[in-house]
Automatic annotation (TrEMBL):
GO terms for biological process: dendrite morphogenesis; regulation of actin filament polymerization; regulation of filopodium assembly. Interacts with F-actin. Interacts with G-actin. Coiled coil: none annotated. The keyword Nucleus applies. The gene is LOC109551938. This is Protein Abitram. Signal peptide: none annotated. It is found in: Cell projection, Dendrite; Cell projection, Growth cone; Cell projection, Lamellipodium; Nucleus speckle. Keywords: Cell projection, Nucleus.
């Protein structure tokens, strides 16, 4: 008996998901807070994703294809700003009266060196909540994303790509140790699952 041809939807469902450019050429590492990533506790607002360059052999030369040392700082999926119902009122790279990250990203040897706890920007939400985003890795501030100043919504819509916070370049001698204290994708997902389970059990 002849079978009916598969519909385009059914056929596409069998196809493996195509990895994004970020997932193909970079590795995600996470800095997790101490809470459930949803409530207003200050520790729960420290949920970041560090997207680091992955060493990928070239088809022709076997050389490095993506820069291993470069770290792109973004919000992790569990950060309160990315939770449903949150609306961003504004974003500022003005850390204090005398410190603006827009001015720190200068050229040459004078690029500002950041510690793990150095603030990168502040996010203001319509519900009155304010979140200070830290570097979470040591290195030189190479770039901040000025696009999120003009269109804050892309930070929520595309946090791992167009909505990134900043680009940090660790020192060469520290490039292999920058992931110490960070979580892998799998470890981060396990933490999130445990948080949800704990929240459900206590509710």
């Amino acid at each position: 008996m002849a079978t009916e041809p598969e519909t385009p939807v059914a056929a596409s469902a069998k196809e493996p998901a195509v990895p994004s450019l970020v997932d193909r050429y970079f590795t995600r590492w996470y800095k997790a807070g101490q809470g459930n990533g949803i409530c207003k506790d200050v520790e729960n607002s420290r949920e970041y994703c560090v997207i680091g360059g992955r060493i990928i052999p070239s088809n022709n030369t076997g050389s490095i294809f993506a820069p291993r040392r470069i770290c792109v700082i973004t919000l992790a999926g569990s950060h309160p700003v990315l939770q449903s119902g949150k609306a961003i009122k504004g974003i500022s790279y003005q850390i204090s009266t005398n410190c603006s990250r827009l001015q720190n990203k200068v050229s040459g040897k004078f690029k500002r060196f950041l510690t793990e706890l150095a603030p990168l920007c502040k996010i203001y939400c319509s519900d009155g909540e304010e979140y200070t985003i830290s570097s979470c890795v040591r290195g030189r501030l190479m770039e901040v994303n000025e696009n999120i100043l003009h269109k804050p919504s892309i930070l929520q819509e595309k946090p791992s790509s167009e909505g990134y916070i900043a680009v940090v370049l660790p020192k060469f001698e520290e490039s292999k140790s920058i992931t110490e204290g960070l979580l892998t994708q799998k470890q981060y997902e396990e933490v999130v699952v445990k948080r949800i389970s704990a929240t459900t059990a206590t509710s």
